[in-house]
Amino acid sequence: MAHAYESTRTEAPTSPAAIGDLINQVKTDALELVHHEIALAKAELIPQAKSGGLGAGLFLAAGYFALNGLSLLFLSGALGIAALFNANTGMVALGFVIMAVVVFLMAGGLALVGLIMVKKVKGPKRTVAQAQASIETIKDAVTRASADAKTRELERRTFRHPETIDPNFRNPGEMR
Fold this sequence. Notes:
This protein is mainly alpha-helical. It has 3 helices and no strands. It has a domain at 29-130.
């Protein structure tokens, strides 16, 4: 399960150790976020994979029965040809044809159930939506952090050298 993280604005760290701690915290949070996303994907995909696998198995069974029906038709055709030459096999050939029809009906039923089960399999919609939301949140945080850093740099430059902004600026400590 992914957690919603709330960003809070803090003052900029001044020491390299504080910056290192922040980088480690970001790395830890990113790893935790990835682990939560993977857990969500697993929870969403496992039932769908089972359904898809069952549907594929039913398709294989339908193919097996269809091939058996085709072989029965070949056998009944051979017996039918033998009946043309007055061999006493006419009723046996009819039995093979009837059995082929029954096997084809079984194959069609299995194929239909397999198709329905495979169509039920959907992509991990919740996982994709959560990942996109996480990406947008991270992009927003990076944009805000970049803007904050630029603002702080501009403030630092301005307060160190205010004359670069306003040439008429006079330091209050200066004598007039």
